[in-house]
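Late entry, evening session. Most of the bench is empty. Finally got around to the prediction I had been postponing all week. Sequence below, unchanged from the version circulated by S.P.
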Amino acid sequence: GINYQMMDMTEDARDCYEQALELLMDAGDRLGRANVLQNLGVLQITEEDFDGARESLHEALEVFGEFGERDREGRAIGALAEVYDAEGRWEESEEYYKRSIGIMREEGVEEGEAGTLNNLGLSYVMQERWLEAKACYEQSIQISRRIEDASAAVSTSCNVAMLWRDAGDNEKAISALLEAMDVCVEMDASELGQITEHARDMAYWMAQE
């Protein structure tokens, strides 16, 4: 299911998840079933099946809580925040993102903390809360660099550039993009193509002004 999902073969992924849920229910494996429900919930978000995603993720969250699986609980809460983001329920999404970040921080799951900080930043951008978004991105980049996750560091650095572009400050956008290139070189990352694509996007938007 996960492999199909990574290849955007959503129907095949859903079929695999549904079969796995039936087998795990027959086996009485509640924790295994919760893991599959979380994967299904993430898939349902991409399919814009937000009611289904909420149901899957809440059920998974309840089981993770019972079994004391705090890191998985944090990830499920972060996924629920994405559901609320998609629905424009900003107060709830912010609450859930912050809960997820708190759990990740407590559990020392730095990769998860960095990813959720990035997602909260994206949420703030959608609300035009530029400075709060920038603060989240900077924290995310700092963590990603510390754990040597080059791909995440470069991706979030590009998000900073897009933030300033969306805010209408092209000078800061270009500066942030140059900083993303510096991160890419410093960490020997392979995301120069991604940065080039962002540069083309910004050049296009600047030409329209």
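Two things to note before I forget:
The mean pLDDT is 89.
The radius of gyration is 18 Å.
Will write this up properly tomorrow.
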